[in-house]
Amino acid sequence: MPAVAGSNGMTVYAFAKDVANSGTSACTATCITTWPALTVAAGTTPTVGAGATGAIGTITRPDSNGTLQVTYNGVPLYFFSGDHAVGDSNGIYTNWSAVKP
Question: I need a surface site. Which of 59, 72, 87, 100 has the fewest CB within 10 A?
Fold first, then answer.
């Protein structure tokens, strides 16, 4: 099954240390530099694309002036800084997985 992609076509990741529906992200400081948050502008409502059946939402990141980070089934979503082309999935490491629909 393919991974979920952001509107830019890049693979989206989940961090195992995040707790679903906690309203917060465990990826901060240097972590967020390597795995940037999937965000939307304030006042924007994210939408689920074709094939994804989970609930989409947002949390407010306290470390970035109130930026809204997108969640899927209550889990914050991220990109990986080492992915450079659509379809790359180089961010699969210990505690990191590509999100499946």
Answer: 87
Domain count, the chain: 1
**Distance in angstroms (rounded) separating the CA atoms of residues 49 and 33:** 26
Q: What pLDDT, on a 0 to 100 scale, did the predictor assign at position 73? A: 94
For residue 101, the enclosing domain spans 1-83+92-101
DSSP for residue 96: E
What is this structure's pTM?
0.91
SS3 15: strand
